[in-house]
Amino acid sequence: QIQDARNHVNQAIYLLMNRDVNYQFKTGSEVLKLMDAVMLQLSRARNRLTTPATLTLPEIASSGLTKMFTPALPPDILVNFYINLNKLCLTVYQLHVLQPSTTKNFKPAGGSILHNPGAMFEFGNQRYEVSHVHKVECVVPWLNDALVFFTVSLQLCQQLKDKISVFSSYWNYRPY
User: Fold this and answer.
1) SS3 letters across the chain
2) What is the pLDDT of residue 160?
3) Which pairs with CB-CB distance under 8 Å and at least 24 residues apart come from 106-109?
């Protein structure tokens, strides 16, 4: 999520810097169009930090997060890391293998930020049920600063757009 946010910021910077240093804007609408594109990238960056992705349990199982540990995690454990506002969250899912002969109704869980005990999924020709969920959070102070900077930058862009709109309408006014 942090890398995605950074990529959106880089795209906003590219939009702003992708002109010759002597370039002069011809119209207010040209500036408004640029500000809209920059604000879109900044909003996407902020949203990546404020709204974690919803994932299915098979997506978590295949994400590689579980495989990055040394020694390897037991096969009945899944882990997921994500950012939510100014916190780094770790969720550990303990799984129970469902036997093929089980009489339990199998209903695969959909996408979610946090899956509850009882959620079921299929992965690698095996069916699982979440038996326990453990979640811990750690506040990351600079993430809060980043969110504040995104909000302030979006406000400044909007103020610039508002001023350009006022002056554009003034310049376009032609008395009869």
Assistant:
1) CHHHHHHHHHHHHHHHHCCCCCCCCCCHHHHHHHHHHHHHHHHHHHHHHHCCCCECHHHHHCCCCHHHCCCCCCCCEEEEEEEECCEEEEEEEEEEEECCCCCCCCCECCCECCCCCCCEEEECCEEEEEEEEEEEEEECHHHHHHHHHHHHHHHHHHHHHHHHHHHHHHHHCCCC
2) 94
3) 108/56, 109/56, 109/57
pLDDT at 103: 63
What are the CA-CA distances from residue 110 to residues 41, 56, 121 (Å)? Answer: 29, 6, 9
Ranges of residues in the chain whose predicted pLDDT is under 70: 102-103, 170-176
| Whether 48 contacts 5, CB under 8 Å | yes
